[in-house]
């Protein structure tokens, strides 16, 4: 079985790697590129712990072959903070203690960021439905939703100040 | 396993036709990769169709919409034109899985996975949608109902591939709707699904109807008796009673952990009635 050469962009950086034909994007991110922020919870698209965006679309990286990332723009949790400066969602997750074991957190942050990019002012119901594919077995979700709603409010405020 | 991502439909067909082992088409992959992970599916060849022109596009044709086989749910959900003409079809597709799944899952994949509980299929059947299939002997168009022949089984021959799905021009004064029953609000597989499409004349009398049930037989059922009892009526309570009775009678479900035969037959009628009322409101505009 010969390996496939993939040229892609991850978190803005041009990246190349070799992968097996049946290797998932999640496995390539974690095991070949050292980007271990994306987690494997179920491996079957049910839990969302492996969430990344590909060409702007939120997807489960466990349900995508690494070879499909050719010429794509991939963003992962590693691309969320700017250097030492945490994204507002990351800060609010800490402030609201919206995590316990933390396994689901990278996927939820990536999914929540995708939500706020297309809907800066979601209702709580919209946020809950958007995040329905991200399972958390620790928090009961309430703190997560509070953190997302608070981050959204702060980000809207920042945008107003900037303009 | 080999992975190929051809740039033309001809090459995709040739690859699939030429593979002696197990060959699979990859569009969104939300069923294929789950099958591979579980060991249920062990492909020798995967043909990724997403590099083929036209697979990602939604285009107007003869007043209707041609939807490429690789168009994911989220893209159709953002398409104001398709949503305006066939809201029931778009809503059915959007019921499938999470936001993440919507980013990849396609209507063509939902059809070819051939699950009896596939949400988009009853809606497509009710909409009288057709499927364009490319193969070694050229292209052919068939009704959606003729694709699945049993759970996980399709009528597609070796080397054949769904190229696009066509939703016809929406007749004036018509509407469609799809409803499913699941024991919670999100992220589940239909216990029963029902798609209804109907057309009214200027006086509000139903002139055409199409009713399809999912998850109550080995394949999606086109319930002609249910359509017949709506036609010629104002889709009033008596007609809706007859519709519900026809759907309950037509359902041939199995008992399983998600529902009993008796429950599924009852719910077939309940959902048909509710979906018909939504379709009626939409037809009235």
Helix content of chain B: 25-40%
- What is the count of distinct domains of chain A? 2
Structural class of chain A: alpha+beta
Q: What would you call the shape of chain A?
A: globular
Strand percent estimate of chain B = 25-35%
CATH class of one domain in chain B: Alpha Beta
What do we call the CATH homologous superfamily of one domain in chain B?
CO dehydrogenase flavoprotein, C-terminal domain
Number of helices of chain A: 5
- Overall shape of chain B: it is globular
Number of strands of chain A: 5
Strand line-up in the sheet with most strands of chain B: 4-5-10-6-7
Cα distance, first to last residue of chain B? 52 Å
Helical amount of chain A: 25-40%
Order of helices and strands of chain B: EHEHEEEHHHHHHEEEEEEEEEHHH
Order of helices and strands of chain A: EEHEEEHHHH
CATH-defined superfamily of the largest domain in chain A: Beta-grasp domain
**Largest chain-chain contact?**
A-B, 31 and 27 residues
Low-pLDDT windows of residues of chain B: none
How would you describe the overall organization of this protein?
The complex is a heterodimer of chains A (163) and B (285). Chain A has two domains: 4-79, Beta-grasp domain (Ubiquitin-like (UB roll), Roll), CATH 3.10.20.30; 88-162, [2Fe-2S]-binding domain (DNA polymerase, domain 1), CATH 1.10.150.120. Helices cover 36% and strands 15% of the residues of chain A. Chain A is built from five helices and five strands. A five-stranded mixed sheet of chain A has the order 2-1-5-3-4, sandwiched between helices. Chain B is of the alpha+beta class and 285 residues long. In chain B, helix 5 (87-94) packs antiparallel against helix 8, helix 9 packs antiparallel against helix 10 (237-250) and helix 10 (237-250) runs antiparallel to helix 11 (261-284). In chain B, 54% of the residues are buried. Helix content of chain B is 34%, strand content 25%. The longest helix of chain B has 24 residues, at 261-284. In chain B, strand 13 (206-214) and strand 14 form a beta hairpin. Chain A binds chain B through residues 1, 4, 21-22, 24, 43-45, 48, 51, 54, 57-60, 62-65, 67-68, 70, 111, 114-115, 129-134, and chain B through 1-3, 5, 26, 29-30, 33-34, 36-38, 43, 46, 48, 50, 72, 74, 97-101, 103-104, 186-187.
